[in-house]
Amino acid sequence: MAHFNKNSLHVDWVLVLTYLLLVTFGWLTIFAVTGPDTFIDIFNFKESYGKQLIFIGFSFMLIAILLSIENQFYEQYSGVFYIISILLLLGLFAFGKNINGQTNWYAFGSFTIQPSEFVKVTTALALSSLLGDNLFDLKKFKDLRIVALLLFVPIVIIVLQKDVGSALVFFSFIFVLLRKGLSIQFFWIMFGIAFLFISTIKLGLSPTLIILNLLLIGFFIYATKKQPLFFRKNMVMVITTFVSVNLLIFLSSFAYSNILEPHHKDRLHLWLRIEKSPEKIRELKQTYGYNNNQSIQTIASGGFAGKGFLQGDRTNGKFVPAQYTDYIFSAVGEEFGFLGSALVVILFMILILRLVYKAEMQKSKFARYYGYSVASIFFVHFAVNIGMVLDLLPTVGIPLPFFSYGGSSLWGFTILLFIFIKLDGTRLDDF
Fold first, then answer.
1. What is the distance between the alpha carbons of residues 55 and 27, in angstroms, rounded to a whole number?
2. What burial class does residue 34 get, using C-beta atoms within 10 Å of its C-beta: 0-12 exposed, 13-18 middle, 19+ buried?
């Protein structure tokens, strides 16, 4: 017999403690980047570190509210939350504030809020509710189409608002769908599309077409030699493969030429080492690649143990522009060195792996898929941000959870995490 004790809340203190450590470490790093040499002026709320303290204070208020709400509320109203968040995204086209060419914020005086940070939460809730339905089946085209619509609506809107980084995060839900039973072929299809896109940029349209078509022809000739009736038995598949690959190459070329902004193209040029002219390379490194170069040098200067808290001369000298946002990991590398950087990585891995472990333990399908959604979002943010700062991935605007400055980012990640802590903490007890 199962009994549900509504008053019983078993908080996972590993997740809570990891959250507190990350938030504290994040604030100290923001203070190191934007604050004075001492803690005397710690409560200067006109400065970024002071504002972040206010954001952290509001986060604790959010946590209290989230933990007091019944579990059924999150699942029952997930669709409503999703629709409201999409409407807020659409409202940016009319009422949004343009910052650095992106219309992603609502401005209320000096205070701004970024809806895309909260759409991740509502999409995770809506997707988890959908996947948790016993009648839902990913093998049915109708249900798969609903999932695609649910995910691609926010992606398209956010891309139109020129925030490619936030849009990429929604592809993290592929891990949740794989857990639900989505064929692994879809993952390889997505990987193939990304490969074709990068190949087209790196090699150009014509060389990519020639090379890949020759490879396809060679493969099918080899397959026919092994199995003489291969072509006849698989004619539809062969033709579909040829048409699809060539169409994707043309679409990749079109998207690169007509959809990506000039700064996106230049960043891809730097990352893929496409540019050959030394003068052009120097120009790109001083413009679109400037942050990356300075970030790498700043991290390298920290060495093994770092220069010490508030002792980073490159951080104090503002060598990395807007270091307290997307490039905050470079300050960790300089002041706390390899040891401090490794500690941050370990904390994130503890958070993500603990989320996966707890998600697998859930008796509620909704809670299980939501847990996987949270873990996937954190993993993509963590991996892409640090990969970007280390120049392993192209530069995109994506914050490091609990570290990068900003109320919307901090609140979005806090809501994301503590909804799951609430779902996990209220359990079915067997007698």
1. 10
2. buried
Query: Other CB atoms closer than 10 Å to residue 69's CB: what's the count?
Result: 11
Q: How far apart are CA 190 and CA 370, in angstroms?
A: 22
pLDDT at 284: 66
Q: What are the backbone dihedrals phi and psi of residue 418, each rounded to the nearest 5 degrees, phi first?
A: -80, -20
Tens digit of pLDDT for each residue in 147-200?
999 999 999 999 888 888 889 999 999 999 998 888 888 778 888 888 888 888
Query: How many residues appear in the chain?
Result: 431
Amino acid at 371: G
Residue 3 phi, psi dihedral angles, 5° rounding: -130, 135
Taken in order 364, 368, 370, 374, the sign of the CA dihedral is positive
- CB distance 419 to 6 below 8 Å: no
The torsion region of residue 406 among left (phi > 0), alpha (psi -120 to 50) and beta comes to: left
Q: Do the Cβ atoms of 416 and 124 come closer than 8 Å?
A: yes
Cα–Cα distance for residue pair 340/306, rounded to 1 Å: 8
